[in-house]
Design goal:
Helix content is about 40%, strand content about 25%. The chain has helices spanning about 15-20, 45-55, 60-65, 100-115, 165-170, 225-230, 235-240, 245-255, 295-315, 320-345, 355-360, 365-375, 380-385, 390-400, and strands at about 1-5, 25-30, 70, 75, 80-85, 95, 115-120, 120-130, 135-140, 145-155, 170-175, 180-190, 195-200, 205-210, 215-220, 255, 260-265, 270, 275, 280, 285.
Length: about 400
């Protein structure tokens, strides 16, 4: 009998298992993959996520993986660009974009080192129920017989199409339409000035450095274009890059090192993340368009929140259901403003007149440009930055400078 079984061992599951194991709980961590292995991902960690890696004692391993730090951000709207350095998170000023082959293996190893039992290439087929309560899982290792394992709680960290969420019929809410489709690939010999984001009509292009002197480039299109884009991914990709001549020139001088990968399966929703004997974490419980690259950072935060809630319940500091309800509340309170901002970016529409006014006023105001970029990476609270009094100071300052 385990205290917790965690289904899914990537960016949400391994940290959850690690943190629970570090608290002394008996944890079983399961994944159908073998590590290291890749998965579809923007694979960028914003400063709040990097701060958690540092707190967990894992940041040095990311740094040692030959993954360069990213401090400077460029948000280019065509006629003008905002460039700066977002404020740090807990003293951490850099973001990182490690490949998932690197990051996920590192996290799985950290969970095992903390004492979690890890079973790779293990497929969960079903949940074990006692009435309405989840009491375990049944599944099989590759080529093996079906086995059943029991636990006080089963955590679904198994992604967007979570088996755990499906089997417990976790309710979805605040569902938004799918906004975009995306494709990406990697290049060598492609110099980048930090993270580069280019906003163009019905397009978004993102570029950033990753391991081994490689660079990742992603293009987003409206979801309505997905069927057409997938008929000639490279052609449509290069047409999008042509909207950014400087980047397109650098790409032509570099070498594409891997095939294009992409998807149109990018829904936006919250799920109720707990119930009798079960909980959800990461994309299983909350998914949004990856255009703001928040998925890994959110997964790390929610792993901390969930492990704290489970510990509170198991240790008797408060009823487990109450602790898990608080986990949902804290998650939602933190992410809702960025959920709205992400939806605005993902709509791939020109900024509305109010936003255009603000962006114009920001030009030349480096302190506030940095803080604006901080709203996207999660180091400046969105309600604080967009508070009427702060916007009034920015716009008033720009008007005074113009006069």
């Amino acid at each position: 009998m385990y205290d917790a079984i965690v289904v899914g061992a990537r960016c949400a599951g391994s940290p959850t298992a690690m943190l629970l194991a570090r608290k002394g709980y008996r944890v079983l961590l399961l994944d159908k993959a073998r590590f290291p292995s890749d998965t579809l991902s923007v694979h960028y960690i914003h400063q709040p996520g990097v701060a958690r890696l540092k707190r967990w004692g894992l940041l040095d391993r990311v740094v040692a993986s030959n993954c360069p730090p990213v401090r400077r951000q460029r948000l280019d709207f065509g006629p003008f660009a905002l460039q700066g350095t977002p404020p740090p998170a807990d003293g951490v000023a850099d973001g990182y974009g490690p490949r998932r082959t690197v990051l996920d293996k590192l996290l799985v190893d950290a969970a095992a080192a903390a004492g979690a039992e890890v079973r790779e290439r293990f497929t969960v087929d079903d949940l074990v129920m006692d009435g309405e309560r989840v009491t375990g899982v049944c599944g099989h290792a590759a080529g093996g017989a079906t086995v059943t394992e029991e636990a006080r709680i089963v955590v679904g960290a198994d992604g967007l199409h979570s088996l755990v969420a499906r089997h417990v019929q976790a309710p979805a809410y605040d569902v938004r339409p799918t906004f975009t489709c995306a494709y990406y690939a990697y290049w060598s010999d492609l110099p980048l000035a930090g993270a580069e984001l280019y906003v163009r009509p019905e397009r978004m292009v993102l570029a950033g450095p990753t391991n081994d002197r490689q660079s990742l480039i992603i293009v987003y299109w409206p979801i309505a274009a997905f069927r057409e884009v997938r008929t000639d991914v490279e052609g449509h990709f290069l047409k999008a890059l042509a909207l950014v001549p400087d980047l397109a020139e650098r790409v032509r001088a570099g070498t594409r090192t891997e095939r294009f990968r992409g998807t149109g399966d990018l829904p936006n929703f919250f799920r109720t993340p707990y119930g009798p004997g079960w909980a959800l974490v990461g994309d299983a419980g909350y998914h949004k368009d990856p255009i703001t690259a928040q998925g890994i950072t959110d997964a790390f935060r929610d792993a901390e929140l969930l492990s704290e809630a489970i510990d509170d319940g198991f240790a008797g500091r408060r009823p487990l259901a109450e602790a898990l309800a608080d986990y949902e509340r804290r998650r939602n309170e933190t992410v809702r403003p960025l959920y709205e901002l992400t939806s605005q970016f993902a709509a791939l529409q020109p900024p509305d007149p109010e936003m255009q006014h603000l962006l114009t006023a920001l030009r030349g105001n480096q302190e506030q440009i940095d803080r604006f970029l901080g709203t996207v990476v999660g180091t400046v609270p969105i309600p604080e930055f967009f508070a009427p009094e702060n916007l009034g100071r920015i716009i008033g300052g720009a008007q005074a400078a113009a006069a």
